[in-house]
Amino acid sequence: MKQEEINDKSRRDFLKTAAIATLATAACGSLACSCSSKQKAATGNTVKLLSPEGEIVEIDSAYLNHQEHMAIVSKLEARQGIAGKKFVMVVDLARCKNARKCITACQKWHYRPEETEWLTVKLIKDSDKGAPYWFPKQCFHCDNPPCVKVCPVDATFKRQDGLVLIDNERCIGCKFCMAACPYSTRVFNWNEPEQPLDIKNLVYSAETGLPAKVGTVEKCDFCPDRAREGLLPPCVEACPNGVFYFGDENEDTVTNGDETVSFSQLIKDRAAYRYMEELGTKPRVYYLPPKDRQFPVERGYEDLPENIKERFKDIMEEKKS
Amino acid sequence: MELNTYQQQAFEYQRPNIEKFGKRAWFWTIFYLLWIVVGGYALYLQIAKGHGVTGMRDNVVWGLFIVNFIFFIGISYAGAIIAGLLHLFRVPWGKPIIRLAQMMTIISVVVGPVFILLCVGRFDRLHHLFIYPRLQSPMTWDVLAILTYFVGSVLFLYMALIKDFAVYRDAKLNVPKWKQKLYNALSLGYRGGASQKRHLIVSQNLLAIIMIPLSIIVSSILSWIFGMTLRPGWHSTIFGPYFVLGALYSGCGVLIVAMWVYRKMYRLENYFTNRHFTYLGYIMMVLAAGYGYFTFSEYFTSWFGSERWDSEVIHKLFDPSEYGWWTLFANLAGILLPILIVAIPKTRTPGLISLSAFMMVMALWVKRYLIIVPTLETPLLPMQDTRAEYVKYTATWPEWALTFAGIATFLLFFTLMSKFVTVVPVSGLEETRTQHEQAQDILKKDKVQPA
Predict the structure, then answer these.
(1) Is A264 part of any domain?
(2) What's the predicted TM-score (pTM) here?
């Protein structure tokens, strides 16, 4: 958890709503306002908040602390999605060199333990003579999601902004969605997930997916809590080569952090395709074919730690010989 | 309740079985309970430590538990269909074995679903199935179907038992007070009056008519849990009928084995005659042929079409270094053996038919394993995982312990039930004799009369 001092007005406004929402829905801990041990100077601006007891209290804004992963929307809003948005991702396979910064960033942001990756980079070789290429894969947030169709309790659902999320407070852990997902996207908490205490004490939200719960299914969520704040998912931000473009289909713009381009133009110019289109799942992730690649495939293999190198050994060693 | 001489004889013959529990029954009960205790400990570990104690992981999300679930539920459906058909068509030789088929139905529909619950990560949220039900999900269909089926099969067995309960009540059995009271309550005051008789037979007929299609529907729904996914080896249009036939076939085998065990244990040779083994053997042979045909169609189309993922699964199934030997066993013991044993007159004996039925039941369990695990080990995207347990499934000891606990529960229920009701139904039992036997009788009479 990061605690930052408030320094700008717009942020303060955001925090107000955030804090109010948290207080209103709070069942335990994670209050946005807490008198920190460090005494801060009162600014004189007070904020009205609803306490868990239902009383309106006035607190000086200096005592409000920003907290990441805070549930800022109601359960109903988390199920409906962000109005007017239609999230989409474009992955440029020609730029990926398996730097794995996306994975590290994703794991860190979502407090994922090692090897239980929401985002994986596969080494794909389409045909015997074909050249292998690196293939980052998140959840495809399909428009015809096989996982959502089979969930018996509506724990995984499709939102109007295109995202497929999971309510880990409702999931019964039958794993039917995992069997149904043709892309092996979903992971299961086989044992009690190890998380820092302050994360464990957070109020759960389907948008943050925190705290993770044992015996339930999880997957990449396109970080809707960050999208609400206007931030890009950590994988997009962390990529040194600008592989991931994230954006809104309704606005027809996607960005990889460095450049912002027209979504429709990009997928037209670069002949984008969706993975295994023939399955009829209608993914929301588009791939730009690995043509005119910026890096030789070996660049993503040579310097890997031995345990990760092992994953790709059969394809890479075969290629060498 | 009035019984004719033949029925009275059948009752007196079985009377000691329900009057005394006996040393042997105690031995087996304790033996089964021990297994159940071991399974209970495994279950405790699974709940306390999480599903990490099982061999299931992110790729192979289902393992032994789901295999057992399909296996037991299949037996149950078969029991209902066999009992229903024998009842509806008034098959004369079927009377003595209807109860066994119904007992099988109800015991396995209790044991089977426990295994699917063991697959569920959150026991504490099972009520979500009812408070947030989602009708699109085949899992919801299955929950509804199994519950309906459970109620139906309990009623079906009970209706058939009412007359017998009346017999036990009137017989002044030398049993504890509570047991007498229970018989009295369960017989619902049945005295065998004309109107009672009519109502009972109508209810039984109706239930039989309902239970047969219900078993077929429920069995198909079970198959759709797999058939509705986009997985190679599962996503097949014949999965519904394939599962129905597989269920019927394996259940027929269990019935034969149960008949053999009870015949030995309670010396019921007069009721479970050689003829019963032969007739059920014929049914088993026909089902074996049908099941073999489905198996062949399934493998042959996948292999010939040779789509990428289908061929990968087929390759795993037939590769001796993967599942080749198991596939061989499943098909030799599961299809060929029963056909040969029954087809050759010399081997058509109760002992050999029962042995082949037992082997076939084992083979069908293996077959269910071969349906579940190789498909889950073949995801559409390459796994590229270095954790061995995520790539290949190996069942752990808690899974085996719970499997054996399930089998022990199944057998325990059979033991306890055979101490509560007679294995061969008493009321309505008819002396069925072959034409040959009847001819012999007439000849005997002819001989006796002139003298």
Answers:
(1) yes
(2) 0.88
